Amino acid sequence: ELQVLDLVSAYEVLLADLLASPASTSPNYVFAESGSVTWLDFSRAVHKTLRKRELVKPEMVVQPYDGGILGSSALCEAVVLRQKGWAPVQKQTVVESVEGDFEEMKRVGAV
Hints:
- By secondary structure, the protein is mainly alpha-helical.
- About 45% of the residues lie in helices and about 0% in strands.
């Protein structure tokens, strides 16, 4: 989970590093993260938000995703970015952001 402003600052750190040392020995890929969340917790938050707005009916969903089909989580750590001094500053988790994200999607006509 990662908020957009944290991702922007991660790109800034990587760009500054590249400009300072074009022959950088950094890996070709870098992860950014601000913590971990399970797919079960995320799916429950989405399900709760949709039910609250009556966008799904009880008979439409057998059960929210339980994490057992595709895997329950994936873990990537921002080791390289943290070594370069980056750290996330946003405090809201992706699960906590579901309600607000849905409202923003509604505001722009995406739902």
